[in-house]
Amino acid sequence: MTAFVALAAGLVFGLGLILxxxxxxxxxxxxxxxxxxxxxxxxxxxxxxxxIGLIAFTWAKKRTTSVLGAPMQxxxxxxxxxxxxxxxxxxxxxWGLAGFCPGPAVMxxxxxxxxxxxxxxxxxVGMLAQHGWARARKQAQ
Length: 141
Hints:
With 141 residues, this protein is mostly helical. Helices cover 70% and strands 0% of the residues.
């Protein structure tokens, strides 16, 4: 049942990416180009995502288990530290330069474009490097 729900959620997420245009790097880059061909339509996508997220997190905070019975594991930290801010900045710069963030990039692997494969490979290398750095940092403490 868990695998089916995960598959269904992934399909709904992917469909949302396609319908919103988030899978098109040019659309994302045009959204970030305030002084060129600015495309404000992604404001609605982000606003909708934030609204749904607020509702979902408000509901989730009141529960101890998920709908499928797994323990509810929500973030507890509220710290705005250098690690969070630098990670957010790197995410934003990568998204602005490439026009992709992880979800649309994985979705676009099926297009077969070498740029997408290169982006995903670089993303995975970065994730592995961060994981190794975090493990080494934890052991040093």
